[in-house]
Design brief:
By secondary structure, the chain is an all-alpha fold. The chain is built from 6 helices and no strands. 63% of the residues lie in helices and 0% in strands. It is rod-shaped, with a radius of gyration of 30 Å. It starts with 6 loop residues before the first helix and ends in a 10-residue tail after the last helix.
């Protein structure tokens, strides 16, 4: 196992390779934890933290890839799943859309046509 797993190296790997590497890392973590209980060397005990972080990196890359594929899948769809929509703020999410803002009632339409804004010519 290499000393440190790099995230940019993981992104070029396929899903199968990532799951295989994840299984290897989890197996290594298991053996390190057993050695810790069985009074193993301190070098191996300190390696536990690095293996845990490597597992986290692999999981992060797999989740990123999965979300990227889902974004491509839902690109042409009308609605997005909630976790793929932009977060923004609660107030912004509840704002009226541009279309909803521009709509006017029937009464407003009649008022605008029958009573347009007056134009005055000013004397220079």
């Amino acid at each position: 196992m290499p000393n440190k797993v790099k995230a940019y190296e993981l992104q070029s790997k396929s899903k199968g390779d990532l799951t295989k590497q994840l299984a290897e890392l989890k197996g290594e973590l298991l053996s390190l934890r057993v050695q810790k209980i069985a009074n193993g060397s301190t070098a191996k005990i300190t390696r536990i933290n690095g293996v845990r972080k490597a597992i986290a990196r692999v999981l992060t890359v797999t989740n990123l890839k999965q979300r990227q594929h889902l974004r491509e899948f839902y690109k042409k769809k009308r609605l997005l799943p909630l976790d793929l929509r932009p977060k923004k703020t609660r107030a912004i999410r509840r704002q009226l859309t541009k279309h909803e803002k521009s709509r006017i009632t029937e009464k407003q339409k009649k008022k605008r046509t029958h009573f347009p804004i007056r134009k005055f010519a000013l004397k220079a």
